[in-house]
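User: Hey, my collaborator sent me this sequence without any context and asked if I could get a structure. I don't really work with proteins. Can you help?
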Amino acid sequence: MGLRVCIDIGNTRTKVGEFLNGDLKRVHVLSNEEVIKNSMMLDEMEIEALIVSSVNTEVSSHLDLNNKNYSTLQLDHATPLPIRMKYETPETLGKDRIALAVAAHKIHSDEPTLVIDAGTCITYDFVDAEGTYYGGAISPGVQMRLKAMHFGTSSLPLINWQKEMKGIPELNGKSTISSMLSGVVNGAKGEMEAFIVKYSENRPNLKVLLTGGDAEFFEKELKNGIFADPNLLLKGLNEILDYNLHL
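Assistant: No problem. I've predicted the 3D structure and written it out in structure-token form, which is a compact way to encode the shape of the chain:
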């Protein structure tokens, strides 16, 4: 049996997941420039089927998926899904949020699940125990909040969050930088906790999954029982691909 390949093309980077018999065997993380320069990378794999989720049409066009000898699927709002949608504007829904919702229901198929994607933006997506997706919320991510304070004022510095990621900041910042970090990081943590509490109302068995670039950091800071999975989106894409192959 060949590989099932799942490709997530973002604004600046691309993740390629290789699945065999339903298990994620390997993940490639590439800059979009690398994908454009090495558009033949797929020809080096023994592929059975492939799915692409892309927010960057320039990059996805370089993959040249026409006339392949295996099944290909490009995720969009009309793609059949193994969950039900109750989203009023599915054509505007991010493909990443679709895949995360599918992955959440696969992992916790009989329980309500909240997915928090802590990346450029922080997204919240809710799927009930029956597999119905209800939408969620979007707010600025940590680095975006720091940038907003710098570019929206005349005196606040631009802080690189990745370099400052050393643990949850003290509430009482004792410098401008530590005060900004306290407001942003403790604010993001408090926001996540508030969403979890609100979604948990009348749902004592609510499950919470974290993903995204800042997921590992916040997993350590939030209460026990919340798990981070950096490859949750790829796993959701694989479920969508498998569902469509069996239609």
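In plain terms: The two ends are 19 Å apart (CA to CA). You can pass these tokens on to your collaborator as they are.
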